[in-house]
Amino acid sequence: MEPAKYNYQDALELLETIRRGARPENPAIASRANQNPMTDKLEGLKGVPSLEGMKEWLETLGHSNANVNNLNIIHVAGTKGKGSTCTFTRNFLHAHSIRTGFPRKIGTYTGPSVQCIRERIQIDDRPVSKDMFTKYFFEDKKHDEGLRKPRYLQFLALLAFHTFIREGVDVAIFEVHHGGEFDATNVIEQPIVTGITSLGLDHVAQLGSTLEDIAWHKAGIFKSSAPAFSVPQESGPREIMRERAEEKGIVLEFVPTDNRLPTNYTVLDIPVQRLNCSLALKLAEEFLRIKVPDHKISGEDISNGVKNFSLAGRFEVVDDGKSEWFVDMAHNVLSLKQAAEWFAKNTDEDVVSLSLAIAQNQEIPCRSYNLWRALLENKAEPGNVIFTTASCKKQKITSIQQDIFAPETLNQTLCDTYSREWKQADPRDIVSSDPTIEKAVELAMKMGVSEDGVQAFVIGCPHMVGEVLNILRPRPSLQSSTCYFVGIAGIGTRFR
CA–CA separation, 193 vs 483, rounded Å? Predict the structure, then answer.
């Protein structure tokens, strides 16, 4: 069937068939790890490296290394803040473009998506259209003709490369999925500039169990042809990153908070976001220095870039006219503390505070437990708490879970368990639960009516946050893809 006969919904349904439950086992990565000085820290890593096959699949699409390099790529790795850094970088360049005409067209590839899969692939300051996504999606599906096919994130990265090449962008900003050295996006051989955001322990099964392991992988995006920048890091990871930069013959520069950033925007109210923005400003300025030396980011560009920052589910505030909803995809302890700090700085002590919090992959509900325990540690006053779960069209229940919970009772069981344990941890709080996000949000809204408005803190995994945002501000033009995750959430209290 010709691509023209397919539609956007066909693309979404086919994309879901690419999802897999777990990384395929392949001991080959261990032998690759033995070729670098971090051998002792990389033993036991599992899975087929995501980088494998990317070059060949791009060639199947008709794209050479030169085609990729001509995208003038800004490559960003890190644990937290990658999406914000990429978006700030895009905003600075877009503001500069409006003022000067360059860069004419900007591509941005970030993840995860919250309300719509097309959020991952943007041109200028908006997701690609349904028609564009559909057209390039089915061109990308040429890989089905081969024996080996891309996995989900590999496919999306290929789709981004393909879209940006076909659309002739002047600069492409690529966010690493996870890691760096073996990540699918590291098929980029000659970026213009690279950057690394804050580091923390993530994907330890693939990347290793120490920050030094993580740093080694993230610094894998460094290339001999490209200046490298990072936000300040702890001493151990910092030295590993410097060593990797030296291997490439480049100097790694650590970027402090830039005093040129405005102070009157809530998105920059916490130090980590100011660091992300400072790194982004450095990346944008370095890009322009290399490509058009006579162009400079102006004070007006900086102000407009920050003012127009919008990234679904990241330090986002939704005002429904009655209550304020502070939304962030905090789903690890580090990001949770940062989000709680942001919420605390922007709430009114005279207004009842709530928090809709903590969604997580149902295969590891214990991680949600750790997260809401961290939420308790950052709570300053007693308040209201509501636990809920992310409702999904399709759920993958592991065989272990089927032995413990029947699928129809899993959500309510987790809600009840967490509600009981929270109440035991802080008896002062009013704790309730509902297994569906719709009803939990409705309950929060009712609280807002009875209390003359609330300030709600919404945190959790992208799927849970996406469902909340679809309720708070429905976007009928965006068609979300099916999600496979279940999470735990709560509505809480005022935070320090």
Answer: 34
